[in-house]
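so im writing up the methods section and need the Outer membrane lipoprotein Blc record in one place, dumping it here so i stop losing it
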Amino acid sequence: MQRRSHSLALLLGIALLGGCASQLPLREAHSVDLQRYMGTWYVIAHVPYFAERGDVATADEYHLKPDGTIAVTYHYRKGFEAPEKTWGGKAWLPDPSNTAHWKVQLVWPLRSDYVIVDLSPDYGSVLVGLPSRKLMWIMARERQLPDAEYRRLLDVAKAQGFPVDEVRKVPQKPEDLGQPGFDTP
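--- predicted struct ---
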């Protein structure tokens, strides 16, 4: 029941915030190779909101299914000593020719946009956001991201109109707790 309420709260937040778009469309990453994009992405930083606030050691995992949809699993902990929890959903491409713009559904019937705004050439880091620009995530294949790449992605986010002053890093290891710029559990 707790997993379901966490999922519902997460999706409601995304759906409500995602529906507020009044700016120009986001510039999307070009030519996203879905096979290469699949796998685990650690959440390095985000604009926190109620459903994710306080989560640590978070990651998104994507798997391309034979029918073309994408299985989505969110991994998180409510503290480093707490057991890992997961919840799942699905994603799909509303336009199969545009692999940078997905629809995500974590709880039926609610769905949200998922826009790959910037993707490093080596598929090592990514900036994902909502068209409303109220929420965004910086993710990487490793639990840490070099400072220069993190700053580059923040610059891209700022140029796209995201509220970079609200961005907080997600603690991926216990030593991150309490450090400047990190979300607090």
